[in-house]
Specification:
With 411 residues, the chain is α+β, with helices and mostly antiparallel strands. It contains seven helices and 22 strands. 23% of the residues lie in helices and 26% in strands.
């Protein structure tokens, strides 16, 4: 009897629940139909307490190319040379401000109204000044845009070097990368990856000045580990360190006589196979650009440094010619000095590389690999600056072995 009553109650509950669900589904269906019908008839609907209307903000264009009316906007560039580019004049009615974006190759309009009309006049007869402004705008765009594209094929077919030497950097952006063809491994035991760190950032620096168009290259990850000196000393400054290898005289000043250092090994082992005479483009040309650099070459052991301690700071510098690679400075990485002991540490390395402005993580990591490495700045009589693997600005004793991550110029 109890079992029969339980079964009837269960059936009754099941029927009631089913009826409720059916009613809800019917109401929901009616609601959806009504909503859809309302949308179809009204052509507008609420979105986060707003309404999507019909704008109809069409912009009408009148196009002229060298004073001849055209139906379409021309493409650019048409080729190479000043006569293959266009200067664009954009004028719109009702005083609306319009400007042609040469990099995106489209019109930028402010305070647009319904039915705005604009005239676009394309003129291929550029003055030299117009042409240079055009090129400079393109380079500025590429320097301030992170792309991160694999451009290894440009190294292999040689177009990498022609695009750099032209000063246009047609299809080269900051953050683009090249996978080494030499088979050399970095400290993570992976094939070396070279990053485009900046473009023309050393142009017209040095003594005499560097006037060749160039791309500044850095390895994505330190290439190897090494010490700055065999003892805890910064005598001879950065120039006199074992990393660089200029001979240090009896007056503790680094001379211009080269003994050879760690960076010389880095050059022949890692860099020359990809960018030197035997580079994959097979053009038998050395595309590593030599430059003159102002390097610290003496340390006063009793000077007050940036730490506020009288335990040494750089006290002199000199020009060293035909440099092919160097460690980066604190300013190159961080955009400012942190532990650099004095002005003698920086020289021409006084600009932050574009890649670190656009992608801060590249200061101490790439992919999943986190690293630390040396910088060229003297900190005290026994320490040089470095980048910490924890993201901090660090200093290391000269005998400490850590990452070597140099920069060099190609073109």
């Amino acid at each position: 009897m109890e079992l029969e009553r339980f079964t009837k109650n269960k059936k009754r509950k099941t029927f009631v629940i089913g009826a409720i669900i059916g009613i809800c589904a019917t109401i929901g269906g009616i609601f959806l139909y009504k909503s859809y019908a309302y949308y179809e008839s009204e052509k507008e609907y609420n979105v986060i307490e707003g309404i999507v209307p019909d704008f109809s903000y069409d912009v009408k264009f009148a196009i002229e190319v060298d004073n001849v009316k055209q139906d379409n906007i021309p493409t650019t560039p048409k080729g190479t040379g000043k006569d293959k580019y266009y200067k664009v004049t954009a004028t719109c009615d009702e005083g609306i401000k319009a400007e042609w974006d040469y990099n995106a190759w489209n019109l930028r309009v402010e305070n647009i109204n319904k039915g705005t009309k604009c005239k676009l006049a394309f003129n291929s007869e550029l003055t030299e000044e117009d042409y240079q402004e055009y090129i400079e705008a393109g380079v500025a765009y590429r320097r301030n845009t992170y792309r991160g594209k694999d451009i290894t094929n440009k190294l292999k077919d040689g177009s990498l070097f022609s695009e750099i030497s032209s000063g246009k950097f047609d299809d080269i952006f900051v953050g683009d990368y090249i996978t080494s063809s030499s088979g050399q491994k970095d400290v993570s035991s992976k094939t070396v990856v070279w990053l485009i760190a900046d473009l023309d950032n050393y142009f017209y620096t040095g003594n005499p000045v560097l006037n060749k168009h160039h791309a500044t290259i850095i390895p994505a990850i330190p290439l190897m580990n090494a010490t700055m000196n065999s003892t805890n000393t910064t005598i001879g400054g950065y120039a006199g360190s074992a990393m660089v290898g200029y001979e240090v005289g009896s007056d503790e000043i680094a001379t211009t006589t080269k003994n050879g250092g760690t960076l010389d090994t880095v050059l022949t082992t890692y860099i020359e196979p990809d960018f030197g005479n035997n580079n994959p483009s097979k053009d038998n040309m050395d595309h590593i650009i030599p430059y003159n650099n102002l390097l610290t070459n003496k340390v006063d052991k009793t000077r007050i440094n940036r730490e506020g301690i009288t335990n040494g700071a750089s006290s002199n510098w000199a020009w060293y010619s035909s440099r092919k690679l160097d460690l980066m400075s604190e300013i190159n990485v961080y955009g400012s000095t942190v532990q650099s002991s004095s002005l003698y540490d920086t020289g021409i390395d006084n600009r932050q590389y574009a890649i670190f402005k656009l992608k801060h993580k590249f200061m101490d990591s790439y992919g999943t690999y986190v690293f630390q490495n040396w910088l060229k700045d003297v900190v005290s009589s026994s320490q040089f600056a470095g980048v910490g693997g924890d993201g901090s600005s660090r200093n290391f004793s000269a005998t400490f072995s850590t990452g070597v991550r140099p920069r060099f110029l190609i073109g």
